[in-house]
Specification:
Radius of gyration: 15 Å
Number of strands: 7
Low-confidence stretches: 158-163
Strand content: 15-25%
Structural class: alpha/beta
Strand order of the largest sheet: 2-1-3-4-5
Number of helices: 7
Order of helices and strands: HEEHHEHEHEHHEE
Largest sheet: 5 strands, mixed
Mean pLDDT: 92
Distance between the termini: 33 Å
Length: about 160
């Protein structure tokens, strides 16, 4: 049986693939029954997309699964998923999300938890270091992407941000 570290290493390969394509280094894999059923990486820049985050790419690449299959899935992602990606996890009843790290970028983890999704944060320094190197090397690209979402990936709740 493979463990969370193994699958996170596979998600990191996807993040590195995005970086090689001059994209933002965030990767994800979708796992069911201890097997990777799809892979994805951030394609915002490569595809001039507004929605192709790594998590969305992995969910899309899995094809149309049935309800019971989605419930057996675990999504591994190198960084904390934003509200959009968290919404897709909730919509498709993916039961578990494993996050590489959430210190560089906090997403909507409480949204996932409040909807019954098991959330595990590995605090994997490989994920943190890859993303920090990118934001150090390409601050103008990252800042431009952040501007598009109001400089936050947190949940917007009225006038207050909520982690």
């Amino acid at each position: 049986m493979k463990n969370d570290t193994y699958f996170m290493s596979e998600a990191l390969l996807e993040a590195q693939k995005s970086l090689k394509e001059n994209g933002i280094p965030i990767g994800a894999v979708l796992v069911m029954d201890d097997k990777i059923i799809s892979r994805g990486h951030n394609r915002l820049i490569q595809n001039d997309s507004v929605i192709l985050h790594a998590e969305m790419d992995a969910i899309e690449n899995a094809g149309r699964l049935n309800h019971e299959d989605y419930k057996k899935c675990c999504l591994y992602t190198t960084l904390s998923p934003c509200p959009m990606c968290s919404g897709a996890v909730i919509l498709y009843n993916i039961s578990r999300v494993v996050i590489g790290e959430n210190t560089t970028l906090m997403g909507a983890e409480n949204l996932l938890k409040s909807n019954g999704v098991e959330v595990v944060v590995l605090n994997d320094v490989r994920c943190r270091d890859l993303f920090l190197k990118y934001t150090d090397d390409y601050p103008e690209i990252w800042n431009e992407e952040l501007k598009k979402v109001g400089n936050t990936t947190e949940i917007k709740n009225g006038n207050n941000s909520n982690r």
